[in-house]
């Protein structure tokens, strides 16, 4: 499952519903009929400007101009039937209505052109996101995977959160991370890390080896391509790198300052805390001896939830943080897609639709034979450290 914010569309402006179009037409008819049947001293013609003004709120420039022209024609009819077309008052009303209708149509045209350009930029952003953050497959070997990505800036479609998965002998290797900061520099660092992660897949590095490789890639990029920017030199990436083994009841993990994943087992939720988390990536040159590997049990029927700190740092109106562990425990979901859907909708509802940080959510499960993703029977996961 993938959940993303969509692009701005102009279809509503180009194809207004008949119900909306009836409003300006009704205004023109009513104003014309009432003005014709009132004494000549009462002038309702200026109200006709409401017709093109309302049309511009839901229709394109062509229809806005057409409604404006119709309003001018109605004003001319009123003038002919109320004292003559050449009276100073009617000439002034017709001229004013014509000028304002032209201006409203012009503003609608400029707005449509701006929206088209924005849509093009967004389409490029989505394409870039598809290259940088490729959608995770629903299945990798026996694993079932669901994910969601929500950019804090809806127009941006992309941010500093990252995730990727590559095949590894007998396992699937996953990375989820969060680049410090926002904007283009954060996107660049995310691209560097994901490129290094995917590019090293064929080398079959050990877990500490791939983490050191990622850390050195980020550090080298900041040190040599930062152009002396202090923000680049001080940047780093919190990351979680793990191997989920296909034929063994465990997973191995290195945590570099990232929020711990949650393991859903036997109607209980457990945070997989490592005894000694490593420093975030990119702060200094890295060596694989610096990274400890922690092993956790993970059997068929269990469900693993990976996420970025945008989830747990989301706040409601009372400025309270999102209670992720309590929410996940109360749902008792064993299907990855259902869990991600629940979390995505509940998070946006909790934050009132406004997130201060990007959010990436990944759920991984190994179905039990003949039972889909039902509950497991293993004992609670206990960390075991190693190299």
TrEMBL record:
A single Gene Ontology MF term assigned here is:
phosphatase activity
Any Pfam family hit:
SpoIIE
| SMART domains recorded | PP2C_SIG
Q: Which Gene3D superfamilies match?
A: PPM-type phosphatase domain
The record's section on InterPro entries has: Bact_Sigma-Reg, PPM-type-like_dom_sf, PPM-type_phosphatase-like_dom
Q: Where is the PPM-type phosphatase domain?
A: 143-366
Protein name as annotated? Protein phosphatase
List the source organism: Streptomyces gilvosporeus
Give the organism's phylogenetic lineage.
Answer: Bacteria, Bacillati, Actinomycetota, Actinomycetes, Kitasatosporales
